[in-house]
């Protein structure tokens, strides 16, 4: 919603693009079959399209809108998501525009009771979290997709029907110039919480909805306060409301505040009510004195809902079409981007004949497992932010009151920010055989390390499977690598290599990975680890590659 007198896309800071309808060949009777269709051109859908393109797969993206989504919506990108964007070649625009941050503060009764600091060092290219409005996120991804010869974007194209058989999926698409049928081998549903694809297949999300409601408001305000996440409990101005505050680019501040249990949601989102509440928060809670302007607002309710299975035949659900997660801990968008990459690289390898179709069977256990992990952590955060009962409320307030004068109690207020999921139980992951003192365990994403000036380990990953090889390899493994030309070898700690790309690697890098000369890490296209060994054999490598491709 926007203030009276302003159109839906009349923004104080963002110029909304217009995406014209382009008549598709199917409307003129041409019969086409697409390898992959994606419904939804939000961040998750376009990320999937770019990942497919990265692996050489053409796709068509359908969206009923003529511009990007309105309002800031999802604003926090994690380091792991920025590493995804780096692989897609679009990270620089995000890093240049976004506001990075490492810390947050929690206040109780207007006193600071806790300050958290997310782990960060000069070994990382990206900060732990970057704030950027969703309009920019979508714009940057769409611009990148528009430059790709492998991605076709079809705007003002609403999917109104979905059917599938053993060979593929057929969509009914409604456009300003008529309806047509679109055929594809596989469909990625990225059409959000009200997914048309999900409803067309008769599927439902299962889980729970939380009682609390939040108003989300964007305001423009010039302020010198640093980019930090702030949470306020029982402020004098709004003693019954939990308040969250984030700084965004262009002097835009995101304010989330909880409605009281007896407040009428319809009345709460009237413009005059929003203005009064925001004024109170800015002046009395945030202690801001400058002029401000209202940009946009919306109403939010927390859910933990998910499909029982993220794959249904030739349809894979990604992002909010597959699950709804609470905003606390900034897990929604970041979880969706991981869905997109997971589904897309597996589809690409199947479509290119590099893996059997059963590789797709690993999508649900991996990404639904990640969702359930999000539920466990975000559910705790949600119950803390918005206690669902009087008992929870009393316990929350007791913990906060204890933290006023006792440092040991302060971590009760830790928001538990999003962390990438480890696919330890995945059918594509091999458990450790050797003991490692450090380093990512199988199923986890690789950790970054600085190799030089503006040069990091993850900069050198390719589009396919990779092998981190530490120091000199044994003769048997060296011979085996010649049998896997599709495997990109990053040879660390050597000056020259006939096995792959020679990269610097000092004692600190070896120690970070718990490696010794001859150690190796096998990594998937999405940077998650398949297996690691202190002294791998040719059979170890062969078995791991077979496992990682679904038992090919």
What does this structure look like?
It is a single chain. The chain has 552 residues and is an alpha/beta fold. The protein contains 13 helices and 26 strands. It has helices spanning 43-54, 79-87, 91-97, 134-146, 196-200, 265-268, 271-285, 332-351, 363-385, 390-403, 475-481, 507-512, 538-548; strands at 33-39, 59-62, 76-78, 99-101, 103-108, 111-117, 129-131, 151-154, 158-164, 169-175, 178-189, 206-221, 229-233, 242-248, 252-258, 292-306, 311-312, 315-317, 323-324, 450-452, 455-456, 466-470, 488-492, 501-503, 520-523, 529-533. The strands form 5 sheets. Strands 1, 2, 8, 9, 10, 11, 17 and 18 form an 8-stranded mixed sheet that branches. The chain has an 8-stranded mixed sheet with strand order 6-5-13-14-15-12-16-19, sandwiched between helices. A 5-stranded mixed sheet has the order 24-23-22-25-26, covered by helices on one side. It is globular, with a radius of gyration of 24 Å. It starts with 32 loop residues before the first strand and ends with a helix. The model has no long low-confidence stretch (mean pLDDT 93).
How does the SSE layout of this entry go?
Layout: E1 33-39, H1 43-54, E2 59-62, E3 76-78, H2 79-87, H3 91-97, E4 99-101, E5 103-108, E6 111-117, E7 129-131, H4 134-146, E8 151-154, E9 158-164, E10 169-175, E11 178-189, H5 196-200, E12 206-221, E13 229-233, E14 242-248, E15 252-258, H6 265-268, H7 271-285, E16 292-306, E17 311-312, E18 315-317, E19 323-324, H8 332-351, H9 363-385, H10 390-403, E20 450-452, E21 455-456, E22 466-470, H11 475-481, E23 488-492, E24 501-503, H12 507-512, E25 520-523, E26 529-533, H13 538-548
Parallel strand pairs: 1-2, 1-11, 2-8, 5-13, 11-18, 22-23, 23-24
Antiparallel strand pairs: 3-7, 4-7, 5-6, 9-10, 10-11, 12-15, 12-16, 13-14, 14-15, 16-19, 17-18, 20-21, 22-25, 25-26
GO molecular function: monooxygenase activity
Domain FAD-binding: 35-371
InterPro entries: FAD-bd (IPR002938), FAD/NAD-bd_sf (IPR036188), RIFMO-like (IPR050641)
């Amino acid at each position: 919603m926007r203030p009276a007198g302003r159109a839906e896309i009349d923004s104080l800071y963002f110029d909304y693009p217009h995406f014209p309808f382009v008549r598709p060949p199917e409307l003129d009777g041409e019969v086409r079959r697409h390898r992959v269709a994606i419904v939804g051109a939000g961040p998750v859908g376009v990320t999937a399209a770019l990942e497919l393109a990265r692996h050489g797969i053409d796709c068509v993206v359908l969206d009923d809108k003529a511009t990007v989504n309105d309002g800031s919506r999802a604003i926090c990108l994690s380091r792991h998501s920025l590493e995804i964007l780096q692989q897609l070649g679009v990270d620089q625009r995000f890093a240049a525009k976004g506001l990075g941050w490492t810390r947050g503060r929690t206040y109780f009764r207007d006193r600071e009771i806790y300050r958290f600091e997310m782990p960060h060092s000069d070994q990382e290219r990206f900060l732990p979290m970057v704030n950027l409005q969703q309009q920019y996120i979508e714009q940057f991804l769409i611009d990148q997709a528009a430059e790709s010869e492998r991605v076709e974007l079809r705007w003002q194209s609403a999917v109104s029907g979905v059917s599938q058989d053993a060979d593929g999926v057929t969509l009914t698409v409604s456009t300003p110039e008529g309806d047509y049928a679109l055929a594809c081998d596989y469909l990625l549903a990225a059409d959000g919480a009200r997914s048309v694809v999900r409803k067309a297949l008769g599927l439902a999300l299962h889980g729970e909805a939380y009682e609390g409601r939040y108003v989300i408001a964007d305001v423009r305000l010039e302020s010198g306060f640093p980019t930090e996440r702030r949470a306020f409990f029982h402020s004098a101005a709004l003693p019954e409301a939990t308040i969250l505050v984030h700084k965004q680019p262009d002097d835009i501040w995101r304010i989330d505040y909880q409605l009281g249990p007896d407040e009428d949601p319809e009345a709460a989102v009237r413009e005059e009510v929003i203005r009064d509440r925001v004024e109170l928060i800015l002046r009395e809670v945030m202690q801001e004195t400058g002029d401000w302007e209202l940009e946009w607002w919306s109403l939010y309710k927390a859910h933990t809902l998910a499909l029982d299975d993220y794959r249904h035949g030739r349809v894979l659900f990604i992002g909010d079409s597959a699950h709804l997660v609470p905003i606390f801990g900034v897990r929604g968008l970041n979880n969706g981007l991981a869905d997109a990459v997971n589904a897309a690289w597996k589809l690409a390898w199947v479509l290119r004949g590099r893996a059997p179709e059963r590789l797709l069977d690993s999508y649900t256990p991996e990404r639904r497992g990640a969702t359930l992990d999000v539920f466990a952590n975000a559910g705790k955060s949600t119950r803390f932010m918005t206690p669902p009962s009087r008992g929870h409320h009393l316990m929350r307030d007791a913990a906060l009151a204890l933290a006023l004068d006792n440092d040991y109690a302060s971590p009760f207020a830790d928001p538990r920010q999003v962390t990438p999921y480890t696919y330890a139980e995945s059918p594509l992951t091999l458990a450790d055989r050797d003991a490692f003192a450090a380093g990512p365990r199988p199923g986890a994403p690789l950790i970054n390390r600085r190799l030089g000036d503006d040069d990091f380990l993850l900069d050198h990953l390719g589009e396919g499977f990779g092998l981190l090889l530490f120091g000199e390899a044994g003769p048997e493994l060296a011979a085996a690598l010649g049998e896997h030309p599709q495997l990109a070898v990053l040879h660390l700690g050597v000056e020259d290599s006939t096995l792959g790309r020679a990269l610097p690697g000092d004692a600190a890098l070896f120690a970070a990975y718990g490696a010794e000369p001859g150690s190796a890490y096998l990594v998937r296209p999405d940077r998650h680890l398949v297996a690691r060994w202190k002294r791998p054999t040719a059979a170890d490598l062969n078995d791991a590659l077979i496992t990682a491709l679904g038992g090919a």
